[in-house]
Amino acid sequence: MFLKKVFSVLLIALLSTSFLLAQSDSLSVGQKVKMLTKDGQAFIGNIQSVNDSSVTLKTEKNMVLTIPKANIEKYLIIPTGSASSAYLYSDPNDTRLFFSPTGRTLKKGHGYFSDYYIFFPTVAYGALDFITLSAGISIFPGATDQLVYLAPKIRFLKWEKLDVAGGILYANTLRGEGSGGGITFAIATYGTSDYGATFGLGWGFAGKDFTNKPVIMIGGEMRLSRSIKLISENWIPPESDTKILSAGIRFFGRHLAADLGLFYPTGTNMKGFPFIPWVGFAYNFGK
């Protein structure tokens, strides 16, 4: 009962958090900005002057720097009093929670290599801004056959902070002796990469047979610091007393994200350590 309460409080905290990030498309004198250069350096300070070719910045350490615009990869204008002022990088792997996808898709030309439990490597690529293709193969040592899995996702709606997508996860053996199975899903995410809530429905299938009622997924993400995010992903199967609750953290930098989580099946009589650990990482690449 105590564990259920802990997960419930965590989920409520994640889903009740809202976030607003103000962003501007132009730079002007006096603005406070965070600026990332193409060689990987990051600077925070106030703009002293701007012209067609460069930006002059006075940093928080009172250094005056003139940065050519051609060398600027990304900048973030920091609104006065904004809660986002501590962050420069966003989560590079925000198209997923732990196992479940979010409603977001990869940008065209961007992708990632991920691995879960060591044995399930996956590669994903943004074919278009609204289409993400992913595939992988298991690597069980000594196995005479391996699993092959495909997971295309299409984003149907992007409106302000709302992303709605649908897709399919299909798996079969490498030999393809059976008809395979998986899950079709519809997923919606509201919020930003720092604070967001995700709701999904999934219909399992084996061959041509589909389940009549969907599995419900409720998840959320909440950024705790510059490089740490809290994640929760929870599955509610139809007509079952067992629910899968989870909580964990994601460590991330500009390209790499690593997840550590604990899954807890309710309504079971697990002895000893009651949690199922989750371990995964993803390396993101792109233009």
What's the name of the CATH homologous superfamily of the largest domain? monomeric porin ompg
- CATH level 1 class label of the largest domain: Mainly Beta
- How many β-strand runs? 19
Order of helices and strands: HEEEEEEEEEEEEEEEEEEE
Identify low-pLDDT runs: 14-25
Number of helices: 1
Q: How many separate domains? A: 2
Question: How would you describe this structure in keywords?
Answer:
287 residues; mainly beta; Porin; SH3 type barrels; 2 domains; 14-stranded antiparallel β-sheet; elongated
Describe the overall structure:
The chain is mainly β and 287 residues long. The chain folds into two domains: 214 residues, Beta Barrel (Porin); 47 residues, SH3 type barrels, CATH 2.30.30.100. It contains one helix and 19 strands. The strands form two sheets. Strands 6, 7, 8, 9, 10, 11, 12, 13, 14, 15, 16, 17, 18 and 19 form a 14-stranded antiparallel beta sheet that branches. The protein has a five-stranded antiparallel beta sheet with strand order 4-3-2-1-5, with no helix packed on it. A hairpin with a 2-residue loop joins strand 10 and strand 11. It is elongated and about 65 Å long. It starts with a helix and ends with a strand.
